[in-house]
């Protein structure tokens, strides 16, 4: 089950971070920390050299790192926007995670395509939040 979703900007600034686990404010702070720590793993995976020059970059980064209680997965767009999902258990199929990230990315594109959205600012769109909540409620 997805317990946290985040969109991180090009300058590693959080544009959207929402937790989906009932709890205290301490839990929200814990997920901020987990997402912030995952940015190092994203940078490492992006910096890895390609196996051959013909390889295309895969936006899905896979599992970034496991913690004691959570598994952190990542995705990076062509514009270097980072999408982070924190799950409380590992996924059975990587293809399922790829599809979830594609849906998450599509929801993001829809939100930032709004002419009233100012780029690289926190995403406060209720429709984006509803889309992310719908994605999160889908079983992995």
TrEMBL record:
<dbReference type="GO" id="GO:0005737">
    <property type="term" value="C:cytoplasm"/>
</dbReference>
<dbReference type="InterPro" id="IPR011012">
    <property type="entry name" value="Longin-like_dom_sf"/>
</dbReference>
<protein>
    <recommendedName>
        <fullName>Trafficking protein particle complex subunit 2-like protein</fullName>
    </recommendedName>
</protein>
<dbReference type="Pfam" id="PF04628">
    <property type="entry name" value="Sedlin_N"/>
</dbReference>
<dbReference type="GO" id="GO:0006888">
    <property type="term" value="P:endoplasmic reticulum to Golgi vesicle-mediated transport"/>
</dbReference>
<comment type="similarity">
    <text>Belongs to the TRAPP small subunits family. Sedlin subfamily.</text>
</comment>
<dbReference type="InterPro" id="IPR006722">
    <property type="entry name" value="Sedlin"/>
</dbReference>
<dbReference type="InterPro" id="IPR044760">
    <property type="entry name" value="TRAPPC2L"/>
</dbReference>
């Amino acid at each position: 089950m997805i317990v946290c979703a985040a969109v991180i900007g090009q300058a590693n600034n959080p544009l959207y971070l929402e937790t989906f686990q009932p709890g205290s404010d301490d839990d929200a702070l814990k997920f901020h920390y987990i997402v912030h720590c995952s940015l190092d793993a994203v940078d490492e995976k992006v910096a890895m050299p390609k196996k051959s020059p013909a390889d295309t970059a895969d936006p899905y980064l896979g599992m970034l790192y496991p913690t004691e209680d959570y598994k952190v997965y990542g995705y990076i767009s062509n514009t270097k926007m980072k999408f982070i999902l924190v799950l409380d258990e590992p996924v059975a199929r990587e293809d399922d995670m790829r599809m979830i990230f594609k849906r998450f990315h599509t929801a993001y594109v829809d939100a930032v395509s709004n002419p009233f959205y100012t780029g690289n600012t926190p995403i406060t769109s209720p429709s984006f939040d509803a889309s992310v909540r719908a994605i999160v409620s889908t079983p992995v």
